[in-house]
Design a protein that fits this description.
Order of helices and strands: HEEEEEE
Helix content: 10-25%
Number of strands: 6
Strand content: 25-35%
Strand order of the largest sheet: 1-4-5
Oligomer: single chain
Number of helices: 1
Length: 94
Amino acid sequence: MQRAARTLFLTPLIALLALIGFAAAPAQAATWSSSDQWGTWSNGGYTLYNNIWGSGAGSQTIWANSYSDWGVWADHPNTGGIKSYPNAKKVVGR
């Protein structure tokens, strides 16, 4: 009975400690990033575009680790209109 109680207590505790260990892992810098207005990067047949073109746009950085793992950090002012259009494109030769 003590062994079963110990197992019921320790199993969730070990799982929680493993989760905390993964969550506390240090962040790693992206393979590529750009704050350029027209910054582009190609990988795996895809091209990523930063595309900051609206009037009054704030700062924006596009980052990528691969063609399927990318994102954007942006801080645009609270004004009307479109500020940017970060996107990915793949050309298929058909």
